[in-house]
Amino acid sequence: MKKLSSYIWEYKIPYLIAVISLLTAVTLDMMAPRLTAHVVDDVIVGGNIGELKYLLLGFLGIGLGRCVFQYVKEYTFDKNGAKISGDMRRDLFRHIQGLSADFFDKTNTGELMARVKEDVDRIWDAMGYVSMLLIEVIYHTSIILVCMYMLNWKLALIPTAAMLLCGSFAVIMEQKLGKVYEEISEENALLNTVAEENLAGVRTVKAFAREKHEIGKFLSHNKRYYDLNMEQSKVFVRYYPCFTVVTKVLPLLTMLVGGKFVIDGEMSLGQLTAFMEYSTNIVWPMEMLGWLTNSFSAAVASNKKIKKIYEIKPSIMEVTNPVKLEKVEGKICFEHVSFHKEDMYEILHDISFTVESGKTLGIMGATGAGKTSIVQLLQRMYDATDGTIYLDDVNIKELSLGQLRTSVSYVMQDVFLFSDTINENIKLGKKDYIDFKTVRHASTQAQASSFIERMEDTYDTVIGERGVGLSGGQKQRISIARALAKRDPILVLDDSTSALDMETEHMIQQTLKTLDNTTKIIIAHRISAVRHADEIIVLEGGAIAERGTHEELLAMRGLYYETYQSQYGDVAEVALTEKMTHNMTNMSVRTSDGKEGEQTWQ
């Protein structure tokens, strides 16, 4: 993580201009009481009217100068704060995007949204308006105290004591607020998570009539968030009146003691007037200390949360000098691959298979058998615990993640469509290279063009968040079109035709047969989706229980046969019996001596 000082250093010139403008504006402001002292002593008391016009011009010059430098100061600080927050949000988002899949398994979306938005915004405040006021308060207070001590060091002890008292209150308040703000930040993340999950799954909530329960869950977090903010307010309200009392008593006490000094001849009336102006000007920095402490504590707490994310490193790392394949043919080889996640049972055990370029592998198995994990390991979303995976005879750990993942077109089981046009969703894989002709051809291959072209805006139709408004089958066909449009050497279909009717699925199967140069991995629960594969593996408990072609697996009468029976029932039994009887009949042969015999069924 880059330190905040590094971000500030990148904008050192604008910040330098802003600070110089701030110092100039404050210095000009501090000159006004000096002019006031001359007006009282020289003009009013001394009767030197001729000096008045010069003093008035001095006030005018101070006013115009402050106007210009205050504008430059405010604008530059705000601009720098906005740029730094933009850079921080960009860097944080890039870091999150670079983290491995296991990080997202353990982290809520709402928490990440809170870090990227609210926490960066608090640091934005600190780098812009709050930092400007902190510098201004420090310089303003310092120069006022210098001017006061130059006028009368005895009287200056009073505002000095007041400042020390306010500073003590500020330190105590910051310590108490720091812990509260950390808890507020955590609860804000939880509140975001609950809201995001419920809004994304609102149809599921309504389908199960869970509105009351979900509202109650949201309100419980909302109440906790409210309580924490009230706790923060109580701390602020408890200490802020102390600042107010000090700032109200200070001018009064200064006037009483200063009046005594004037009577005793230790000060002139003009000096007392200037001193009173200074004591009035020192009031607002004291009042601001409470608010600045409040905002600064929030920024510190947010920065700690962001640091925690930066401390997390990707578990999937590229080698320093990755192998660059000139052309990916698509040969896939798993050698004794096993896999388990942290603190979890073994998901895959001793998986070995080879898919030659252009061939098709079918993967079947019960839910949780590890089918999707095979694809996740192939794409290095996770690394295998044991064993090795090869792409074109090269260990995938020696390839760059970019080349590996862009070589695989993946139609996911859980279809995700962005809130954009259908055209942009299909071009998602390679937006800069895919033209409309390719989009339309891929849509036709995926049997999606029929319903897309019936829409009013056809391919420019904007679909809702996550494809809302489309049926499950329509979303699957758009997702398949997205994968086909990429024309990558490897195509993975992860239960991607489950929402399609048999006729549409059959037509897509015919399309897949035409992809001679594409290696295909088809994960499915339907026999119809994998029956034409060159090899089918059946997973059970994370291990390969059966393997072979469709016919070979049926002949085994094992898990695959049971699945076949459950999907096709009596029709399958009759068809299989007739086929086996026909084969037995054809295998009857006559021996050379004319005797009839039968060849044993193997």
Describe, in plain words, how this protein is organized in 3D.
The protein has 602 residues and is α/β, with parallel strands linked by helices. It folds into two domains: 4-310, ABC transporter type 1, transmembrane domain (ABC transporter transmembrane region fold), CATH 1.20.1560.10; 332-574, Rossmann fold (3-Layer(aba) Sandwich). Helices cover 64% and strands 11% of the residues. The chain contains 20 helices and twelve strands. It has helices at 4-10, 12-45, 52-98, 101-106, 109-151, 153-200, 202-207, 211-263, 269-281, 283-310, 371-378, 401-405, 422-426, 436-445, 449-452, 472-486, 502-513, 527-530, 550-556, 559-586, and strands spanning 332-340, 346-355, 360-365, 386-391, 394-395, 408-411, 490-494, 519-523, 535-540, 543-548, 588-590, 596-598. The protein has a six-stranded mixed beta sheet with strand order 6-7-8-3-9-10, sandwiched between helices. A four-stranded antiparallel beta sheet has the order 2-1-4-5, covered by helices on one side. It has a two-stranded antiparallel ribbon with strand order 11-12. The longest helix is centred in the middle third of the chain and has 53 residues, at 211-263. The chain is elongated, with a radius of gyration of 38 Å.
